[in-house]
Amino acid sequence: MNNYESVIILTPVLSEKQLEEALGAYRRLITETGGEIIHEENWGLTKLAYPIQKKVTGFYHIFEFTAPGDLIPKMEVAYRRDEQVMRFLTISLDKHALAYNEKRRSGAFNKTEEKSDKTQELV
Question: Does pTM surpass 0.85?
Fold first, then answer.
């Protein structure tokens, strides 16, 4: 079992129901092939750095999961066939990336807490 992170950008014209159906299909694909979803993050509707298919926004969603290596080609084929997916990127995570993601999820990089701690030290 390898650790992976997959980021997908879905078209902004989807309704909430269509968005959940699309994400549910990818969740099922991961779990039915023996994988396990560790963490999911929905960034919502976000402005793109450059237009894709004449659209300037998209729904960003991140899956962090463990799965056998043969799942990734199947996932990428599913992404390419789905007209709702504008872009995707799947990467393999090493031990350093896993440690970073764990710290990020626990809030170690939360800047609002750092600012409040610094202001309390000054007072």
Answer: no
